[in-house]
Amino acid sequence: MKKHGWSYLLIALSVLIGVVAYPYLPDQMPMHWNINGEVDEYWNKQYAVFFPPLLMIVLMALFIYMPRIDPKKENYKKFSSSYLIFITIMNAFFLLLQCVTIGYSLGLNIDISLAVNLGIGLLFIVLGNYLPRIKHNYFFGIRTPWTLANEKTWRKTHQLSGKLFVVAGLLLVAISFLPGVYKFTGMLVVILTTVLISTIASYVYFNRYKNVGNN
To answer: Band of the pLDDT at 1, cuts 50, 70, 90?
Structure first.
């Protein structure tokens, strides 16, 4: 439990923020924005306020449970610090989303698309720095049929993808300051391109290394 201390603190902070803000929030809160930055979906505040901490709790349970059922469970010990950092950063991201949503609902002049893009960009940069450290497993990382089938393919793919994710994160941060429709389109192009290149690379590496073992 102690090793997840920061994540538990972020979840507790999320609940506290929701409880404190709840009496001051409108009955209907914006929860989705279109590509032009306009609100196109509202939720009742009892759901909107406490959805982020609930999601954080569910994800925490999954992240804690996954290593226990993974056939490669012993490998998690080899990248445990990176795994914990990723969990913490994910919780921080959802806390950020909760805060900007509540702030917007309270009338603050917040550019939601800017905040979300910046958050995703920083998330990609952090993840990119830790991807090369992730060892072969079945639940966490770049999981394609080819990375799962061969440890050397896994390693090479994650080394490349780490660099790609950092570059993608920097691009997402830069794109955050573009006008609405360009921001949304740019984000999709960057993310899909990163995923596509990583997937293709895993196939290429697999065919290169499938007959040379996992060393």
So the answer is: low
| Two structure tokens written together for 78 | 């080899």
What is the distance in angstroms between the CA of the first residue and the CA of the last residue of the chain?
Answer: 35
Position 215 scores a pLDDT of 53
| Rg of the chain on CA atoms, in Å | 19
CA angle 7, 8, 12 (to 5 degrees): 120
CB atoms within 10 A of CB 3: 12
Bridge partners, residue 29, by sequence: 43
Q: What share of the chain is helix, strand, coil (3-state, %, to 5)?
A: 75, 5, 20
Instruction: Please give the helix or strand (H or E) that residue 31 lies within, else none.
Output: strand 28-33
Tokens of 41: 């979906």
pTM: 0.86
The residue ranges of every structural domain in the chain are 1-110, 136-215
Residue 177: both structure tokens together: 């300051």
Asked whether 43 and 54 are in contact (CB, 8 A), the reply is: no
Interatomic CA distance for residues 3 and 5, integer angstroms: 5
Crossing angle (nearest 10°) for helices 5-21 and 45-69 = 170
